[in-house]
Automatic annotation (TrEMBL):
Pfam families tied to this protein: Methyltransf_11 (PF08241)
Swiss-Prot/TrEMBL keywords: Methyltransferase, Transferase
Domain Methyltransferase type as annotated: residue spans: 44-150
GO MF annotations in UniProt: S-adenosylmethionine-dependent methyltransferase activity
Gene Ontology biological process terms, A to Z: methylation
InterPro entries reported in the protein's UniProt record: Methyltransf_11, SAM-dependent_MTases_sf
Annotated protein name in UniProt: Methyltransferase domain-containing protein
SUPFAM superfamilies recorded: S-adenosyl-L-methionine-dependent methyltransferases
Amino acid sequence: MIEQDNRYEEQESPKRAAICYDEVRHPFGLREILGFVRPGDVVLDGGCGTGQHARYVATVAGQVVGIDTDAARIAIAKMHCRDMDNTHFEVASVTQLPFEDNSFDVVLLAQVLHHLKGCDTSKSDVLRRQCKQSLMEAKRLLRVRGRLILVTTSREQRRTAYWHFNLFPQSAWERLDPCWSLTEDSWFTSMVQQLAFVEIGSAAPSESHWFDTYAELMVRRGLDSGWRSTDVAFSLLSSAELDQFINRVNTILATGIAGDLMKAVRFGRTSHGEATVRAYEVLP
């Protein structure tokens, strides 16, 4: 039977979207991230979401400050860490951070740069400007020998390791490429070097950003606007592109090939990873 989606609810309330995000998203790359955090470090988790990374980082660091532009997600982060006396959360943007210079040992930006709030995804210069501003803010806050940790996803990783991106129409790929390839271009490498960051390590974990489940249920989630709200990419689709995505999900469910799709995706995760964790150090 062809499933019906609930597109009429596509504009999720911030509270429901935050709850959905917290229920299905997994704190990606924890082992790799924690490898760059030292006991006693003061850590800024920029774009912290519901605090999924922060609550683990706080078990190692001396203090963790989490910021996000979404007040509903900050509320959930506070709830998760209510029993931890070394965490603090507030609403703020990574492009204009309300903290003093040289006040952090680590700045973590996990899956933040490619969807900065207010970015016009059709204009690469706007994206670059906001990305540069975010990294300049990170540099301002970091002490000498401080570490910047980035989690980003490449074009190839999106193509091979995410089932839902496999079902996006080509028009979406072409239109959103300036956003999705933000950290892959030579300008990004040059900018990082100009800001006196030197790369000290990288890894592409084979895990997922979402809690895994059996193939058909995972694909069926694509019909739920709440689940779709857990990836900002869906909000960037046109109505026609979302219709194409929904139709492809229904076709996969009707033909019973969800298992084949997820098998290919798991191979992609193993070979390419869903994202890459990179750490940089501030030169003296």
